[in-house]
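Lab notebook page, bench 4
Experiment: in silico fold of construct C2
Operator: M.H.
Input chain length: 173 residues
Purpose: comparison with the prior construct
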Amino acid sequence: MPDETTLWKTSPSQWLNLGPFAAALVISIGIIVGACYLPAAGLALVVPLVYAAWRYLVVRCQTFELTTQRLRITTGVINQKIDEIELYRVKDTLMLRPWWMRLTGLTAISLQTSDRSLPHLLIPAVREGAELRELLRKQVEVQRDSKRVREMDFDETGSAAGEVDADLSGGQA
């Protein structure tokens, strides 16, 4: 098997923090106004600033790395958690572009997988999402072909997806 190489690696955009940053700003302004009347209240300014810094670090420390064989997800600021999805386990991809992401040139990619520990994965707010999705799709097919793996889903009745249940009653109700 050829060596594993990194094809794509990124962190989500800080646009994910627009709401928390705006809330921290509003609270900070409120504290500053309150400090005009009660100077000791200025000490509370530390809380929204620390919160904003923490939110920044949470997004910054989350990385997604697509290699030729797997998708590696790293999360955590102090304690890191590294999870991996073998590419042949990816069942479906969905590209999401709400209006605010379109304005900022960002995309979210949603993955459905057969991985038990990570059946659904969202790669939020990344640039060049269409290119990433196509690269991911191609690598999934390469890995499935190299491992000779095919995905088959079963519904609640136990029949394979796409399989038609035979009507044993001869079509009469």
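Observations: The domain at 6-147 is CATH 2.30.29.30 (PH-domain like). Confidence is low (pLDDT under 50) at residues 162-173.
Next step: discuss at group meeting.
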